[in-house]
Amino acid sequence: MPGKDTQTFTVEVLGSGTSMGVPVVGCDCAVCRSGDPRDKRLRTSVLVRIRGVHLLIDTSVDFRQQALRSGIKHLDAVLYTHHHVDHILGMDDLRSLNFFTGRDIPIYATRYTLENIRRVFAYVFESETVVSDIPRVIPREITHRSFRVAGVTVQPVPVLHGDLPILGFRIGKFAYCTDVSHIPEESMALLEGLEVLLLGALRRKPHPTHFSLSQAVDAARRVKARSTYLIHMSHDLGHAQTEAQLPENIRLAYDGLTLTIAE
Q1: Residue 47, Cα to own-chain centre: how many angstroms?
Q2: What's the confidence (pLDDT) of residue 52?
Q3: Contacts of 204 (CB under 8 A, 6+ apart)
Q4: Cβ of 212: how many Cβ atoms within 10 Å?
Q5: Average confidence score pLDDT of the chain
Q6: Bridge partners of 252?
Q7: CB neighbours of residue 96 within 10 Å
Q8: Residue 120 CB coordination number (10 Å)
Q9: Could you check whether the bond before residue 23 is cis, i.e. omega within 30 degrees of 0?
């Protein structure tokens, strides 16, 4: 735990579920019927609050619901891991924040991700669109090099999502790596000395584009963060049963979990 005089920041898990969420539409499995609120998983996204700066990682399909629950009033930027729909489709709901703050919101992503965001949200970037009908965003292209947002240093962490290169992000002693199936050795070096790692773990069975539970545990042991929380989970992983089988410093995240991290 951070000491009394240690400067800290918080990371709130807005959603911890895979692309279909949990419960899954049409499913009657034990996890989808569970009464444990930790088994209710919106699509994966997190909010970092650091030194008065609010950084959202991905605008999930469920962003509106997440923002209302979390009381989000403004954002200084959105960081995008990649362009898959469960990570970007909530971008339209940035409109209300534009309206109430009177500010455009910078969005940071690789060139490839920005190209796909422009394709999916073509109406946002068409000059003839009425401004009040669209989210007002400012695209900022990033690479693997660190960058600063409102004085906060963000380090991209290149990982693989199957054959697709995507990004995790490191801020201080916290890192976020979702939808990952492989962490290259050069990226492992970027994850040294972490207090908290949020790491994707889809299910127990192997998957071609995501870590399985055992693969995520193996990766977490290699990273050696003080605490690892697993995210982007399917209905294959019931919270209480799965967490009881994990090492002491590896746990399951859940919607609404807020972590306090020393800078």
Answers
A1: 8
A2: 95
A3: 212, 213, 214, 236, 237
A4: 17
A5: 95
A6: 230
A7: 14
A8: 14
A9: yes
Per-residue tokens: 222: 């290699």
Give the Cα separation of 174 and 91 in Å (integer).
24
Angle at 179 between CA 178 and CA 183, to 5 degrees: 80
**Do residues 3 and 219 make contact, with C-beta atoms less than 8 angstroms apart?**
no
* Beta pairing class for 45-50 and 8-15: antiparallel
Contact 146, 153 (CB under 8 A): yes
- Which whole number is the average pLDDT over 183-190? 97
Structure token digits, residue 170: 């490191």
Write down the pLDDT at residue 133. 78
8-262 CATH fold = Metallo-beta-lactamase; Chain A (3.60.15)
Q: In whole angstroms, what is the distance from residue 40 CA to residue 58 CA?
A: 19
SS3 label, residue 105: strand
Query: Can you list the alpha helix ranges (DSSP code H) found in the chain?
Result: 63-70, 85-88, 95-101, 111-120, 122-125, 185-188, 213-223, 239-243
Given a cut of 80, is residue 6 above it in pLDDT?
Answer: no
129 — pLDDT class (breaks 50, 70, 90): low
For 118, other C-beta atoms within 10 Å of its C-beta total: 14
Say which residues have a Cβ less than 8 Å from residue 218's Cβ, sequence separation at least 6: none
Question: And the tokens for 25?
Answer: 């539409």
Which run of H or E residues covers position 156?
Answer: strand 152-161
Report residue 251 as tokens: 């746990």
Give phi and psi for 58, each to the nearest 5.
Answer: 75, 140
Q: Rounded mean pLDDT of 61-85?
A: 98
Residue ranges per domain, the chain? 8-262
> Which amino acid belongs to residue 117?
I
CA-nearest of 139, 142, 92 to 120 is 92
